[in-house]
Amino acid sequence: MNVWEYQNSSAASLQKSYLLTLNYSYVDPALATVTGIDPKTGQPILKPGTGVVNTNYYLRRSADVSNEDVKYTYVILNDAAFTAERAKLQKYFTIVNPLATAARNLAISDSLTNWAICKDLAFRGDFSVSIPDSITSVDSLRVHLDPTQIVEKHKVSNGVVYVMSRIDYKMQSKMKDVIIQGTNFVASPSTAAVIFASTINSYKNKTTRTRYNALTNSNFTEIYYYTSTTSLNWLHYYPLVNSCTYKVYWLAVRDFNTTAVAPAVPLMFTQAVTFGTPTVLAALPYKQVDILNYNEVYLGNYTTTAWGNLDTFLVSAVSTTDGANTLVLAYIKLVPVTN
Question: How far apart are CA 199 and CA 221, in angstroms?
Answer without folding.
Answer: 22
